[in-house]
What does this fold into?
Amino acid sequence: MNFIVNKTKAILSGFMVVFMGGFGTYYLIHSMYPEAPAFLVIAAIFAFLFFQNAATITVTDASVSRSFLGLGKKAVPWSDIQELGLIGENVFSRKKAKTGHKYIYFSPKKLTEKERFDMIVKWPPKKMLYVEYQEKTLEYTMTIWGKELKSYNAEDLFPNSKD
It folds into this structure.
């Protein structure tokens, strides 16, 4: 089954690429050189965010893989995944009910509480696959995983958990 890493961020960053790139191109055509490179650089930054968030995570019985339009495929077999977890991004919220954006991550090693906290602070992780939390995504993934799900800073989904 295929899932987009983060649909909301992909749509917003895609819009910003078109918007800023359009202004940059307009200024470039009209010889407004100080403005054109600034808008094109901003468009390039949002293009990076678009490619990062619009990637597709494919979950099969054999592996979990990430690709963008079928290119740059990174596949990790289930045997190499040591921990499947659910995290909330906003670790500094004073209200425990506000855990921020939630993600499902596929870790190649078992993580400690400190490593999970560090992973959220330095989000997105570079050596892990992850996808935005949706109930159907978690249900499908858990049918294949079949082991314990780790959670960190996800009290609004699991209110009786100790994390």
User: Anything to note?
Assistant: The first strand starts at residue 2 and ends at 4. Residues 2-53 form one domain. The mean pLDDT is 86.
